[in-house]
Design a protein that fits this description.
alpha+beta, 141 residues, 3 helices, three-stranded antiparallel beta sheet, 2 domains, 28% strand, single chain, globular, Signal recognition particle alu RNA binding heterodimer, srp9/1
Length: 141
């Protein structure tokens, strides 16, 4: 496993080549956990001409779990998807896909209804949500 210094150097090198926004990158390194996977950069321009850059490592998908189905109090918690699953879901979301099949886990993600469907038990359909970690905005579900 590479050292954190090597990971940071690789991270800076990748973004220095791919983006002219080095200042945003330095702030990102300080506040976000490092991922060894390449990060996609998405730029949006609104009707006022304001440009917004979103790094896909700033996006995390969650599903609502019920930890103890036998508990007398219904405690639901938001669980993050794995890094690999998160990348698959986010890529499908950005491509306006309606469904994503998480093959290794027997789950199908419905991106229109924002639910996770168990391929073996259609009665299990917990909600999912997409969170921008950069601004910590949480959609209401």
């Amino acid at each position: 496993m590479p050292s954190i210094a090597v990971e940071i150097i690789a991270y800076i090198h990748y973004y220095f080549i791919m983006s002219s926004q080095l200042c945003r990158l330095i702030a990102c390194i300080k506040t976000q956990p490092f991922s060894s996977e390449k990060t996609e950069v998405h730029v949006k321009k609104d009707s006022n001409g304001t440009t917004t850059t979103i790094l896909s490592t700033h996006i995390q998908w969650y599903w609502k779990s019920r930890r103890d189905p036998w508990a007398s109090i219904d405690v639901n918690e938001w669980e993050p998807y794995s890094d690999d699953q998160n990348r698959i879901i986010e890529k499908a979301f950005r491509n306006n896909a309606e469904y994503v099949n998480l093959k290794e886990s027997d789950y199908i993600i419905d991106l229109k209804r924002l639910i996770q469907m168990n391929a073996r038990d259609s009665t299990k359909q917990p909600p999912i949500k997409r969170v921008n970690l950069e601004d910590q905005s949480h959609p209401t579900n």
